[in-house]
């Protein structure tokens, strides 16, 4: 029983790893509540609350129609879903895979499995939330039409992937200084509340204001999403390539930083905390 288990070939090792990722993903979905269904319902309720909140904010500001010709609620949803997928995935990944986690002392477990499972659990929650809210609005309030639904979901995947990459950098910082990593994570989330561009349309922004938003990959993702959602909107001031290259760059930096941290981390770091 004390002999470490070894896979006989690469196929068996791949299936063992995938099974492990699946079980850890299910555990991540269930650990927030006794019932996994309640976790998913809370994600849906959070999305509805954000949509209702921004609808009221726009109503108070006197904005009662979408700047893009089309459904006003779809315009709000296109920003909220991408924002939630990005920021919540970033927060989840940044808090996963601590090198001194007791779970990692078990043979089959490693930080790659923990990070992958956490990211997949976040993607599942956000996909479920988007599908339920869109279906509920379509069948209970009024029918909606998305010009390219697959393109919109592709942008959701890009928002999720870029959130994973940003979270990986914060994850590498956390063992060195947990308080700093937590502050940076919250600061990044608050920054995206404004500079994600979910309340603005890039084509209508002046140049001096556009430069304040164009650094953010999520700004480009949200604007491109609206290009896929609305047949009458063609994004001119955002790029599809920029968030892809930015996410890949952040991924490489995060992987190198996490590898260095994992090699240097010690369980005694958190002994006094």
What is the strand and helix layout of this fold?
Layout: H1 10-30, H2 36-61, H3 72-94, H4 111-140, H5 149-173, H6 178-195, H7 207-213, H8 217-229, H9 241-264
What do these coordinates show?
The protein has 273 residues and is an all-alpha fold. It has nine helices and no strands. The protein has helices at residues 10-30, 36-61, 72-94, 111-140, 149-173, 178-195, 207-213, 217-229, 241-264. Helix 5 packs parallel to helix 9. The mean pLDDT is 82.
Low-confidence stretches: none
Could you spell the SSE succession in H and E letters? HHHHHHHHH
How many individual helices? 9
Radius of gyration: 20 Å
Biggest sheet architecture: none
Shape: globular
The tally of strands reads 0
> How much strand content do the residues show?
under 5%
Residue-averaged pLDDT: 82
What structural class is derived from the secondary structure elements? Answer: mainly alpha
N/C terminus separation: 34 Å
Helix content: 55-70%
């Amino acid at each position: 029983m004390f002999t470490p288990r070894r896979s006989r070939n690469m196929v068996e090792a791949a299936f063992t790893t995938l099974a492990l990722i699946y079980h850890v993903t299910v555990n991540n979905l269930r650990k927030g509540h006794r019932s996994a269904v309640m976790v998913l319902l809370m994600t849906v309720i959070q999305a509805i609350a954000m949509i209702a909140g921004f609808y009221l904010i726009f109503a108070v500001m006197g904005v009662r129609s979408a700047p893009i010709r089309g459904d006003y609620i779809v315009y709000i949803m296109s920003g909220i879903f991408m924002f939630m997928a990005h920021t919540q995935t970033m927060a989840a990944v940044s808090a996963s895979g601590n090198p001194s986690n007791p779970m990692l002392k078990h043979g089959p477990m490693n930080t790659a499995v923990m990070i992958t499972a956490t990211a997949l659990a976040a993607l599942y929650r956000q996909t479920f939330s988007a599908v339920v809210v869109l279906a509920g609005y379509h069948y209970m309030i009024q029918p909606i039409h998305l010009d390219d639904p697959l393109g919109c979901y592709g942008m959701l995947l890009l928002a999720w992937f870029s959130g994973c990459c940003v979270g990986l950098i914060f994850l590498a910082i956390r063992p060195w200084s947990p308080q700093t990593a937590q502050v940076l994570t919250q600061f990044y989330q608050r920054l995206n509340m404004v500079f994600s561009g979910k309340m603005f349309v890039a084509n209508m922004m002046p140049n001096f204001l556009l430069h304040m938003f164009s650094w953010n990959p999520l700004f480009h993702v949200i604007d491109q999403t609206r290009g896929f959602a609305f047949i009458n909107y063609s994004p001119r001031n955002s790029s599809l390539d920029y968030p892809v290259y930015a996410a890949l760059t952040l991924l490489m930096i995060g992987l190198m930083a996490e590898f260095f941290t994992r090699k240097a981390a010690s369980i005694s770091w958190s002994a006094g905390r």
